[in-house]
Design brief:
alpha+beta; 3-stranded antiparallel β-sheet; 5-stranded antiparallel β-sheet; 8 strands; homotrimer
Chain lengths: ~140, ~140, ~140
């Protein structure tokens, strides 16, 4: 029987925020010992990633890389209804994905030592973001 | 007990097609109330994405971006057995992924308001594509 | 009830290695007939992909593409603690992902004819890599 819970965040604008603690808490609340923890963000301009959790320059470098790969306001984009970061945010989300699944082992989220779960806001302004966590056995 | 069904598509060539309705129907047929819906494409030159579902220019801009990121017939590619879009299609599929998992909540596919599920054909010619949907609880 | 097993690899340095046989064996060992097989790598500088399994130039072209997309030692990167491939390996892993889910059908891993599962080492030196396989029904 699956356990499911909804998490809600107010992002401060473009950038990554750790949500590892909340996901670990959901696994603990589920009472499931061996299974899968699925994390899903219900938006198309924010994504979920696993990233190195020790040195913050990894995440700032990642942002720098993505700014170069998918430039805001690129003249090739037609879809600019909500500003120059609108279409870039959609492309960034598709390249980094909105779903993520992590094993549950001995009742805990089985991340590697250096792995953290991050919500990546791709819009410049802060947004209200919904994340569903589902734990199955 | 998992529910599983096979969907089959004839794509019209390169581009994205909504398959949200078929995935939602599979969830309804499963009778599962709370769980996960996994979608998988059994190919290496087509992929599955979640994308904004309201303005078609989002998907045409996405195509334009990908054409620039992974140019057909790039001289760095050796693998061109099936033409200039052959290796590009493999790279595009790996960057956008062949598997996707979405929560099931209250018996329904729990997509965000603006999220749709799209099959992305990366070859210029149409192909027969198989997609397996698995719903677990 | 989920089945779970840990696989361990010693990679020979940057490049892709097939792990399809080991994943298929885990599915057979699980005894599960219909469900999902989840594969997870517990690191942030190696990833898991589905790739064409017939012509090895597909994987060498993929490597060539990634070297151009995410250059080692790119001057825009600050995080270089472990050398010029350090930050590049993190970016490559995030773009190609650390988790993968494949359907299980009739007791077997339901890959397409041309799909193989590959562990992609992104560091130049070989590393010890842990992969957890979870099979659910």
């Amino acid at each position: 029987m699956a356990y499911q819970t909804l998490l809600q965040y107010r992002t401060p604008g473009r950038g990554t925020s750790s949500i590892t603690g909340d996901i670990s808490d959901a696994v603990a609340d589920s009472g499931i010992e061996t299974g899968l923890c699925h994390v899903f963000i219900h938006h198309t301009s924010a994504s979920l990633i696993l990233c190195e959790n020790a040195d913050p320059t990894v995440r700032s470098d990642l942002e720098t890389f993505m700014v170069r790969l998918v430039p805001d306001g690129d003249p090739m984009f037609e879809h600019m209804d909500e500003g120059p970061d609108d279409m870039a945010a959609h492309v960034r989300s598709i390249l980094t994905k909105m779903d993520l699944t992590i094993p549950v082992t001995n009742g805990r989220l089985a991340l590697g030592t250096w792995q953290g779960v991050y919500l990546w806001e791709h819009r410049h302004h802060g947004h209200h973001r919904k994340v569903t966590v589902t734990v199955t056995e």
